[in-house]
Every structure is written in structure tokens, then in C-alpha cells.
Specification:
By secondary structure, the protein is of the alpha/beta class. Helix content is 42%, strand content 13%.
Length: 397
């Protein structure tokens, strides 16, 4: 019988060698509809695939015979030291993956010495994350039709010591994740097959639903009608709350209410990056929302170089969407990013093993990045530059 490579089938997190291994553990540990919420992309998922294809198109051209002993991943992000050029991106409904989802993510980030970003749509009160996890905390903000929600989030985040605000601008109109929607008869009402699959995951039922009940949008409860704060009820109400009317004028409105670092999350053009810098923003996050919003959208890594060249000397440039390897992070840093933000990569760890799984995900990526630095003859992340990269031409049609 010929040798055949098989997906990772273990359960021991220490035996997982990469993010793909953690993904396999996560896929087995949670019901299909929960995994699909994390995994899926918009419509035909062309953007989702394109994020990974864009990384694959970049190849390294390493020098040789350079001393790389004593390598360091430490860098400065928003005026403070980070132990690696990595931050945890904001993701909502993490309580569906693990009962202590947001706190587990934040604690893992704090333990490693990198920032964690809490979502407006988190299932944990921002005050609880601050008191139970600590570390460098950033707050993601959606400005909804009811401006009182954003005002409340900013006031509470400032009082709780969150150091930065990430204003997300690319979700004012919700994308259509069709594979996710196929799990439901209608919003909030799972299909019988999804319910049956859930019953095949008794440990998840016990750990998540029986321990704490259906996760709730804790930071929005005061603004939602009765019954709409849960993941079930909120699925029909919350999409209607988003404001398609947000504009650049809202930066000034936020600045009047937020006294600390401000970043715009959703930038993909040089003109928008320059406008953010002109308005005094401290940073930007290049993103296509992990392929979950606009399908056939370009990958952030494809425009990173030109955007970093235009504004990198004026503001912090972060990037997310599709990061799975230390090589991915090295490519982004070489093109001018200050750090990469992890979304699904961290969530695979969370679903696979809670806080320990997130720590494992961060550690693996940091070890990979350190190894790549050495192989590229770099002693620090500051040594990475565009001369180390070549872009592969697209394949012939």
C-alpha cells in the first residue's frame, strides 16, 4: 500500500505542528454550523481563496553568509513594545467556540506580550476582559444607526483602559456568506441536520450551551429589544442596525469622544490611506474582512507595498486576511507592514483548546517567523525589506 499523507488526527495540542493542524482539531471539536461560521467566506468565496493565492505568489530571494545569532521578534506598535509583530484581530461570537472565548484570546495575547482586539459583537463584557485578562487591549468599533451604542462603547473602553480603537468601515453593508446561511431554515433557526450534528458533539454542548447558555452580545444588551441579545435572536436584529451612512466625517465625531490611539480598519487604497493620515489617525488596518464581505475583492497583501510606501512614515500600518504561516507574516513585514493581525488562525486555536490552543497558535507562528528570519539572514524584523521578495507571474490561462 503506497504511503499517503493524511490530515492531522491527534488531539494533543503539543503535537500540532502548524495552524492547519489546529484547524483540524477545531473542525472535529465543534458542530458544523459553528465551524462554518468561522470558516466561510462571501458568496463564491473568491476573496477567501484569493487571500491565500496572493501569499503564494510572493517568493523569497534570500541572501547568504550573514550572522543571524541573537534574532529578535520584538517591535514597536502604537508607541509600545510588542514581543512579536503580531496582534489578535477582532472577531465576534467567540463564545460559540469556547465559553471563555474572548477572555481566553485576551489572556493568551497578554501572556505572549502582544495586543488583543475585542469586537463590538463580543460575547463578553469589555470590562470583564479588562479585569480578567489585562495586557494590551484594543477595542473594535462599529458605528451603528443608533449612535448611542458607539458612544457607550467608547466611554466604557476608555474607562477600562483600552489603549486603542479600531473603527471598522467595511461592514456597513453585511456580506452574504451563503454556506453559513445554508445551515438555517431562517436566521436563528437551524436546519434539522444542523441540530442533529450538534447532538453528535456532546462535549461542545456541555462546555458551551449547558455551562453558560446561548452566547449573548453582552456589550449591546442595553440597546437590544427583549430576546434579541442572544446569538439566536440577534442574528435577525443586528444586521439591520448597521449604518450604510458612515463617512469620513465620522472620524471627527469619533475623535471628539475617543482620546487615545485611533485606527481605521478597512483601508485598501492609497488615497484612503492618505486621507486617514491627513485626518490624524494613528494607524490603518488593510483588510478585506477575511473574505467575508465583498467577493472578488483584492487581497490586502497585493496593495500593501504601495500603501506602506505612501503613508508608512506617518502612521502604523497593520494588515490581516489570510495569515496562516510565519512566512506570511514575514512577507507582510518585508512589504512595509508593522504587524499582522490574526483572525481565523487564533480562532482555530480557541476552538481546538481554549486559551491553551490560542497560545499554541501564537507560539507556532512566532517560531515560524523566527526561523524565517534566520533563513533570510535577518536578525530582527526591521531587517526585512522588499528586496527579499519576488512576485511570481500569474499562471497562463
Amino acid at each position: 500500500m503506497p504511503w499517503k499523507r493524511l490530515p492531522f488526527d491527534g488531539r494533543n495540542l503539543s503535537a500540532a505542528l502548524n495552524i492547519a493542524d489546529l484547524r483540524e482539531v477545531a473542525r472535529r471539536r465543534v458542530p458544523g454550523f459553528v465551524f462554518e461560521y468561522v470558516e466561510g467566506g462571501a458568496e463564491e468565496e473568491a476573496t477567501l481563496r484569493g487571500n491565500r493565492e496572493a501569499f503564494a505568489a510572493l517568493r523569497f530571494a534570500p541572501p547568504t553568509l550573514i550572522d543571524t545569532e541573537g534574532r529578535s521578534l520584538r517591535t514597536e506598535l502604537l508607541g509600545a513594545t510588542s514581543n512579536a509583530p503580531i496582534a489578535i484581530a477582532p472577531t465576534g461570537l467567540n463564545g460559540m467556540l469556547h465559553p471563555d472565548g474572548d477572555i481566553g484570546l485576551a489572556r493568551a495575547a497578554a501572556a505572549f506580550g502582544i495586543p488583543y482586539t475585542l469586537s463590538t459583537l463580543s460575547t463578553t463584557l469589555l470590562e470583564d476582559v479588562a479585569s480578567q485578562a489585562g495586557g494590551r487591549l484594543w477595542m473594535q468599533l462599529y458605528v451603528m444607526k443608533n449612535r448611542a451604542i458607539a458612544e457607550d462603547i467608547m466611554r466604557r473602553a476608555a474607562a477600562s483602559g483600552f489603549e486603542a480603537l479600531l473603527f471598522t468601515t467595511d461592514a456597513n453593508v453585511f456580506g452574504s456568506r451563503e454556506w453559513d446561511r445554508r445551515n438555517y431554515l431562517r436566521p436563528g433557526r437551524p436546519r434539522p441536520r444542523a441540530i442533529l450534528d450538534t447532538l453528535r458533539h456532546p462535549s461542545w454542548l456541555t462546555r458551551v450551551l449547558l455551562r453558560k447558555g446561548v452566547p449573548r452580545f453582552r456589550n449591546l444588551e442595553a440597546f437590544l429589544p427583549p430576546g434579541a441579545a442572544s446569538a439566536v435572536g440577534g442574528s435577525t436584529i443586528i444586521p439591520q442596525m448597521f449604518a450604510p451612512t458612515i463617512t469620513w466625517d465620522d472620524i471627527a465625531w469619533i475623535r471628539q469622544r475617543w482620546p487615545r490611539k485611533l485606527l481605521i480598519k478597512g483601508v485598501l487604497t492609497v488615497s484612503d490611506a492618505r486621507r486617514a493620515a491627513d485626518l490624524g489617525c494613528d494607524g490603518i488596518v488593510l483588510t478585506n474582512h477575511g473574505g467575508r464581505q465583498l467577493d472578488y475583492c483584492l487581497a490586502p497583501i497585493e496593495v500593501l507595498g504601495e500603501i506602506a510606501a505612501a503613508v508608512g512614515h506617518r502612521m502604523t500600518v497593520l494588515i490581516d486576511s489570510g495569515f496562516r504561516r510565519g512566512t506570511d507574516i514575514a512577507k507582510a513585514l518585508a512589504l512595509g507592514a508593522n504587524a499582522a493581525m490574526l483572525g481565523r488562525a487564533a480562532l482555530y486555536g480557541l476552538a481546538a483548546g481554549g486559551e491553551a490552543g490560542v497560545r499554541r497558535a501564537i507560539e507556532m507562528l512566532a517560531l515560524e517567523l523566527d526561523r524565517v528570519l534566520g533563513q533570510l539572514c535577518c536578525r530582527s524584523v526591521a531587517d526585512l525589506g522588499p528586496a527579499l521578495l519576488r512576485r511570481q507571474p500569474p499562471p497562463n490561462p
